[in-house]
Design a protein that fits this description.
The protein is mostly helical and 102 residues long. It has two domains: 47 residues, no CATH class; 46 residues. It is 71% helix and 0% strand. The protein is built from five helices and no strands. Helix 2 runs antiparallel to helix 3. The longest helix has 21 residues.
Length: 102
């Protein structure tokens, strides 16, 4: 099966634009306009990753989401220690938030 550039654009529409730009160069139809080495691609991906920032509040929110999901799963599976684990993770998240805030 062959995909057109329009197909790939449509399938990757939900990706962040920086990653889509990297993908465009990686799969460019003209060989000379592609990344010429794995190192070039690695540098582009590192630059893109460096653009991603997570604030302390975002980190806490992400951790709380993970904890809530794990607690619900543990509860469904009958694991009694979920509340204790949730408290520990919540305290860890608050500690991280305080450290970054100072």
């Amino acid at each position: 099966m062959t995909y057109t550039e329009a197909d790939v654009e449509r399938y990757t529409a939900s990706l962040p634009e920086g990653l889509r730009m990297t993908r465009r160069k990686l799969l460019h139809p003209e060989w000379e306009k592609r990344y010429q080495t794995a190192g070039e691609l690695g540098n582009a991906l590192r630059r893109w990753l460096g653009e991603l920032t997570l604030s302390p509040a975002d980190a806490v929110e992400e951790l709380e989401g993970v904890v809530n999901e794990a607690s619900a799963r543990w509860a469904r599976e009958g694991v009694e220690r979920s509340l204790s684990a949730r408290r520990k993770l919540h305290h860890s998240a608050l500690s991280i938030d305080r450290q970054r805030g100072s």
